[in-house]
Write a structure and sequence with these properties.
Elements: H1 20-34, E1 43-45, E2 48-50
Antiparallel strand pairs: 1-2
């Protein structure tokens, strides 16, 4: 699942913005809490959460 986050309108990144991999790790953990086993075999790579 590629993830492309939009930039702020003024072109500057926000200070409170998480790096992409940290954000995807939170998404992965949330998915796992919601549906245990759904992220089994998935991995974070580049700007993507890869799953089999």
């Amino acid at each position: 699942m590629p993830w492309i986050r939009r930039r702020a309108r003024d072109g500057r990144p926000r200070e409170e913005r998480l790096p992409d991999l940290e954000f995807l790790a939170l998404v992965q953990a949330s998915l796992e809490r919601f549906a245990p086993g759904v992220t089994r075999g998935s991995e974070l790579k580049g700007n993507s959460l890869l799953s089999p």
